[in-house]
Structure formats: structure tokens, C-alpha cells
């Protein structure tokens, strides 16, 4: 029988295996460390992010203050413009009011009985379609004034018209005029013939309050 001593071989093999295991562990630890380092580098720095957010907040607050200052400045400027415009409108209203003398009332009657002009509309009717207020195609020569009597802001007009529609249109124009209010058709009557003996016509009487 032949005997072979294998103990030295087994011992060296175990040593080599142990060394390989240690080397594997060391490499694994190194790789894990490198991976952790790379991952840590990819993560955002909390301090850096905090500084960036603080800077962004300061920027937004600065912009907000600028916008607020700009708005308040614009408001002051617009308020000045509004006050200036109101003063101008009041001055114009006073001027218009002071011009409402008998002379301008007669001028308004001329406008009412004019085909080209028409009445000066009340402020409450401003912006409305004139075609809904009076007939712009009406022939004003169908109405004539024979008497104009004004006393204590009370006006009485007497005249004639070719037809009832003409009286109605004249009354409607007085109604929408800024110079008259409480316009009332006091009376009207039919007259047989004109002086030429051709056409019939109507006589009327209108009372109104003049706005001075």
C-alpha cells in the first residue's frame, strides 16, 4: 500500500481560498464606497438648495415691492386725471347751464324745427339711437309757430300744423330736448281751410317748463 500525505496541500489551498475571500470583500467594500460617493454627489446639497431658495425668495419679494410701488404710483396719477376731468366736466356743465337763456331756448326751437340738426338730447338719453327718439326724416316745414310766450320758466307755444302726426313729432322732439321738461299738448283743433282755401290744417297749443 502506498500512502500520500495531503495535509500540506490542503492547508495551502485553504489559505489561498481565504485570501481570495478577503480580496473579494475588500473589492466589494471599495465598490460600495465608490457607489455611495457617486450617489452622494448626485444628491442635491441641502445648504446649496437652501441658499438658492432664499435668493429666489428675495428676488420675488423685490419684484413684488416694485409692482406694488408701480401700482400705487399709477393709482395716484389716475386719481389726479379723474379729479382734473371732473373739474373740467363741472366747468362745462356750469357753462352750459349759464348759456340757457331765452336766446338759447329760441336757438333750440330752431334746431328742433330744422331738418339738419334736430333737438339737443337730454343727458339721460346720451348714447341712445336717435332714430328711436324722433323721426330724423320729418319735414319741419309742416309745423309753424305763431306765438312764443315765456314767463317764470313756463313756456307756451301756439302754432299750426298740416297733420296730427306733425304735432306729435314736434311734441316728441320737445320731450327729448335738454331745454324742456313736462311738455304737454294743451289743446288742438282742426281749422277748415288755409288762407288760400286749399288744405285743412290744425292749430295747437303746447305748454312746457324751460330748463335754465
Helices and strands in order, then pairings?
Layout: H1 7-42, H2 46-98, H3 102-112, E1 143-151, E2 154-161, H4 164-176, E3 180-191, E4 201-210
Antiparallel strand pairs: 1-2, 2-4, 3-4
Q: Tell the overall outline.
A: rod-shaped
Low-pLDDT windows of residues: none
Helix content: 40-55%
Strand and helix order: HHHEEHEE
- Tally of helical segments: 4
Q: Helix/strand-derived class?
A: alpha+beta
**CATH arch. level architecture of the largest domain:** 2-Layer Sandwich
| Physical arrangement of strands within the biggest beta sheet | 1-2-4-3
Q: Could you walk me through the main structural features you see in this protein, from its secondary elements to its overall organization?
A:
There is one protein chain. The chain is rod-shaped and about 155 Å long. The chain has a four-stranded antiparallel beta sheet with strand order 1-2-4-3, with helices on one face. It has two domains: 42 residues; 109 residues, 2-Layer Sandwich (Gyrase A, domain 2), CATH 3.30.1360.100. Strand 1 and strand 2 form a beta hairpin. The longest helix has 53 residues. It is an alpha+beta fold and 212 residues long.
Amino acid at each position: 500500500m502506498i500512502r500520500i500525505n495531503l495535509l500540506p496541500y490542503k492547508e495551502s489551498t485553504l489559505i489561498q481560498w481565504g485570501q481570495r475571500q478577503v480580496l473579494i470583500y475588500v473589492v466589494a467594500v471599495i465598490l460600495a464606497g465608490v457607489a455611495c460617493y457617486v450617489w452622494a454627489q448626485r444628491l442635491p446639497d441641502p445648504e446649496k438648495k437652501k441658499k438658492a431658495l432664499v435668493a429666489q425668495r428675495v428676488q420675488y419679494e423685490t419684484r413684488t415691492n416694485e409692482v406694488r410701488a408701480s401700482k400705487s404710483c399709477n393709482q395716484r396719477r389716475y386719481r389726479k386725471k379723474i379729479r382734473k376731468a371732473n373739474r373740467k366736466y363741472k366747468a362745462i356743465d356750469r357753462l352750459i347751464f349759464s348759456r340757457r337763456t331765452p336766446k338759447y331756448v329760441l336757438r333750440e326751437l330752431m334746431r328742433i324745427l330744422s331738418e339738419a340738426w334736430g333737438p339737443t338730447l337730454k343727458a339721460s338719453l346720451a348714447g341712445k339711437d336717435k332714430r328711436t327718439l324722433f323721426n330724423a326724416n320729418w319735414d319741419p316745414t309742416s309745423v309753424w309757430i305763431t306765438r312764443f310766450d315765456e314767463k317764470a320758466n313756463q313756456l307756451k307755444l301756439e302754432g299750426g300744423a298740416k297733420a296730427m302726426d306733425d304735432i306729435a313729432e314736434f311734441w316728441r322732439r320737445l320731450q327729448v330736448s335738454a331745454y324742456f321738461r313736462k311738455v304737454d299738448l294743451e289743446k288742438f283743433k282742426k281749422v277748415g281751410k288755409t288762407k288760400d282755401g286749399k288744405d285743412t290744417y290744425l292749430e295747437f297749443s303746447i305748454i312746457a317748463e324751460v330748463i335754465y
